[in-house]
Automatic annotation (TrEMBL):
Domain (UvrD-like helicase C-terminal): residue spans on this chain: 302-613
Amino acids binding ATP: A36, G37, A38, G39, S40, G41, K42, T43
Signal peptide stretch: none
EC class of the enzyme, as a word: isomerase
GO molecular function: DNA helicase activity; hydrolase activity
Keywords in alphabetical order: ATP-binding, DNA-binding, Helicase, Hydrolase, Isomerase, Nucleotide-binding
PANTHER family given in the database record: ATP-DEPENDENT DNA HELICASE SRS2, UVRD / RECB / PCRA DNA HELICASE FAMILY MEMBER
Protein's name in the database: DNA 3'-5' helicase
EC number in record: 5.6.2.4
Native source species: Rhodoferax saidenbachensis
TM region(s), chain numbering: none
Length: 803
């Protein structure tokens, strides 16, 4: 290693750097680790380091290798360097792992055994290639779905394994290895490489070609790796090869100095293969003597930072750092407990309205959630409030592909002549209907002037038989759903259409399955809010009872499409929308209206994963409940729980000025109402930084609160479970309060009697077990077969006696 001259602080490049940033920028030429906390100026340090090395002549532009994780980050680095120095950044090796490996293989294509004009397969291209292979070799795609084969191949490459290196201890694995081998041969014949191949073939070329390896080890004197905590096993091995790092920890071939920049507390991509342990391995294997911690945060106030520090301190095996700021304490972190996810969303929107009145730009307000499916309730509430919003890094709920597919099936149940919906799902999930068959059907429909559905009977041969089978499936499903409520119609459709099975077999299909579950929730919420009633048949008219005809639309809680459907004269028998028709209209309006245009001042909605690298003045973190955040998939796994805590740390540190944390007592998830414990993460936050917007101990509520548009529920405890949860005593899995012993009160006349059958708009039909109190204090204990035993305040809950 060569040493650099003693650093001076006279260069304009070094002005306004804090002591830790200055130390990182002016490091000598040796391996070092920079622990860069959130908002600590990491990008500035990286670019200034490169500019300082170039300006002082310690390295030429060709001697720098800088690896980023996104093309956007690479572009930003080049832009900043161009502004700092008169240097041609385009010739410098700054880019993503895949981008740099592509450049490397283009330069050495012959040595890599590739054609000069080799092409790169994206994910969809790779899937198509595997499907062709399966068809050619008659591989059972039911047993070995092409997507799963693609994941297997990708995982092998990330581990640096070729087919001959994979240990196949069972018949299924042996078959997958066989397909892997056939896939490699096919790609080689066609002169194409996938993303995993770019990385693996570059690594192998460096490993096996001494001349090329030593050339790059001599060339790159300074190697800078951004977001080091997100590197996987193969990427780390590639870095070691470029740096001349032997397995014995010694430098071979005079490799360059590696500056690894990252934050182990923000490692949140284990599901993509990221290995946070690479950071500790780097310190050990490269014999790192210098670790510099960038702990001064330029983004947030100390109440936010102290909360983040306290939370992440519960993780073990951290390299360790504490964020700090000179900006002062700022506002406390606000904590809100809602009776339901609907009321949680309503509270957020009310708070947003006040922030906007206080001149906070909408684009500086972000809502973060653990699961994509959570956005639906929030989107609906924003839509109803006419507040523009943008779903960052994804689509609005009703615009997501899986939701559009499900809605297309529902539209075909309602109207089989809907050609747009027909074309969307006639071959989804795939059922062997080709493009040519569809074209033939369209030609027949055009010639006879009928819909595609009606033209199927005139299409002959195998195409006609296959498409007729699809139509028959729809007809059977239409019969099966007759008389069912909207929720059950959707659940049956999701199962029988094959949509759920299709997405369950996808590698990252869990989110899509959750979104389809959320569609069921959306439908149930919709029928309640629009006054249909939970059990109203999906295909029946809106106004169905004599009592309903004596009430105004407003008193029934009707709005939107449902209100439009009510005849002007209530005694009229004019046509009305069915719950299914009204819901489809609602979905179309939400998908097509109030969309925030690019650059428009709009509320930002996103998952916590999508928020990494972003910052906002005001941040709402919603759904902080056990099973949701931390996610239920991580609850039994120590490493999984630590990753969830890192995810919460990332979420908290997105906020500059104001942070809200909210949780809900009840939430619709996977088609069921859940009674939730608040997240254990609340117990790990410093009390002095928090401000509770609701009492820390509240009675457990059900039914959406106090006579809200959810149909009115009043107070209720989940007494069917033998206990009530609240925000009382602290425990490992949240909080628990033992139920207080009830003092029986004298029973007063209420119009009800023990043993009587009653109907509740949210819980359905139930039996009265006990009556207590009088007047506004009157309440009843009722057993609802589908929802357990609940106490309801009779002044709030609307109960109808069942004869």
């Amino acid at each position: 290693m060569h040493s650099l001259a003693a650093p001076g602080n006279t260069s304009p490049l070094l002005h306004n750097l804090n002591p830790e940033q200055l130390a990182a920028v002016t490091l000598p030429a040796e391996h070092a680790l920079i622990l860069a906390g959130a908002g600590s100026g990491k990008t500035r340090v990286l670019t200034t380091r490169i500019a300082w090395l170039l300006q002082n002549g310690y390295v030429s532009p060709g001697g720098i290798l800088a690896v980023t994780f996104t093309n956007k980050a690479a572009k930003e680095m080049k832009t900043r360097l161009s502004a700092m120095l008169p240097v041609n950044v385009n010739g410098m090796w700054i880019g993503t792992f895949h981008g740099l490996c592509n450049r490397f293989l283009r330069a050495h294509y012959k040595n890599a055994g590739l054609p000069q004009a080799f092409q790169i397969l994206d994910t969809q291209d790779q899937l198509s290639a595997i499907k062709r292979l399966c068809k050619q070799y008659d591989i059972d795609t039911e047993r070995f779905p092409p997507k799963q084969l693609g994941w297997f191949i990708g995982n092998c490459k990330e581990e640096g394994l070729r087919p001959k290196d994979v240990v196949a201890s069972d018949p299924d694995t042996r078959k997958k290895v066989e397909v892997y081998q056939l896939y490699e041969e096919q790609c080689q014949r066609e002169g194409v490489v996938d993303f995993g191949e770019l990385m693996l073939r570059s690594y192998e070329l460096l490993r096996d070609n001494t001349a090329i390896r030593e050339h790059y080890q001599r060339r790159f004197r300074h190697i800078l790796i951004d977001e080091f905590q997100d590197t996987n096993k193969l990427q780390y091995a590639w870095i070691k090869m470029i740096a001349g790092q032997g397995s014995d920890g010694l430098l071979n071939g005079g490799g360059g100095a590696v500056l690894a920049v990252g934050d182990d507390d923000q490692s949140i991509y284990a599901f993509r293969g990221a290995r946070v342990g690479n950071m500790t391995d780097f310190v050990r294997e490269f014999a790192v003597q210098r670790q510099i911690k960038l702990e001064e945060n330029y983004r947030s106030y100390s109440n936010i930072l102290d909360s983040a520090n306290a939370l992440i301190s519960h993780n073990s095996r951290r390299l360790g750092k504490n964020l700090r700021t000179v900006q002062g304490a700022g506002e406390p972190v606000r904590v809100y407990e809602a009776p339901s996810d609907f009321l949680e969303a309503q509270w957020m929107v009310d708070e947003m309205k006040q922030l906007i009145r206080d001149d906070v730009e909408r684009k500086e307000i972000a809502v973060l959630y653990r699961s994509n499916a959570q956005s639906r309730v929030i989107e609906t509430t924003l839509f109803n409030a006419a507040i523009p919003y943008r779903v960052y890094g994804g689509l609005r709920f009703f615009e997501r592909a899986e939701i559009k597919h499900a809605l297309a099936y529902l539209r075909l149940l309602e109207n089989p002549n809907d050609d747009t919906s027909f074309l969307r799902v006639v071959n989804f999930p795939a059922r062997g209907i080709g493009t040519r068959s569809i074209e033939q059907l369209q030609d027949l429909a055009k010639a006879t002037g009928c819909s595609l559905h009606d033209a199927v009977s005139t299409l002959s041969g195998r195409p006609g038989a296959v498409i007729a089978g699809f139509v028959a499936k729809l007809d059977v499903l239409r019969e099966q759903t007759a008389g069912l409520n909207l929720k059950d119609i959707i659940k049956l459709m999701l199962e029988n259409s094959g949509l759920l099975e299709h997405y369950r077999n996808e590698r990252e299909g869990e989110d899509r399955v959750e979104n389809l579950d959320e569609l069921v929730n959306a439908a149930e919420s919709f029928v309640m809010q629009e006054g249909f009633g939970r059990e109203a048949p999906g295909m029946t008219a809106l106004v169905s009872s004599p009592e309903a005809l004596t009430q105004s639309p407003a008193s029934q809680g009707l709005s939107g499409a449902a209100l439009d459907a009510v005849p002007d004269e209530f005694g009229d028998t004019g046509e009305t929308l069915s719950p299914l028709q009204a819901f489809l209209t609602h979905a179309a309006l939400e998908a097509g209206d109030n969309m925030a245009a690019a650059g428009q001042d709009a509320i930002q909605l996103m998952t916590v994963h999508s928020s990494k690298g972003l910052e906002f003045d005001c941040v709402f973190i919603t759904g902080m409940e056990e099973g949701l955040f931390p996610h239920e998939n991580s609850m039994s796994d120590h490493d999984g729980l630590e990753e969830e805590r890192r995810l919460a740390y990332v979420a908290i540190t997105r906020a500059r000025k104001r942070l809200y944390l909210s949780h809900s007592q009840t939430r619709m998830l996977h088609g069921q109402t859940r009674f939730n414990l608040k997240s254990r993460f609340f117990d790990e936050l410093p009390e002095e930084c928090l401000k509770y917007l609701t009492p820390k101990q509240q009675p457990m509520l059900a039914g959406g609160g106090f006579g809200s548009s959810w149909g009115g529920g009043g107070y209720a405890t989940n007494s069917g479970a033998g206990r009530a949860y609240s925000t009382g005593a602290t425990g490992q899995f949240g909080t628990y309060s033992a139920p207080q012993k009830e003092v029986p009160r004298k029973e007063e006349p209420t119009g009800l009697r023990k043993g009587q059958k009653v109907f509740h708009t949210k819980f359905g039909e139930g039996t009265v077990l006990t009556l207590e109190g009088a007047g506004d204090d009157a309440r009843a204990q009722i057993n609802f077969p589908r929802h357990g035993t609940k106490w309801l305040a009779l002044s709030v809950a609307k109960l109808t006696p069942v004869p």
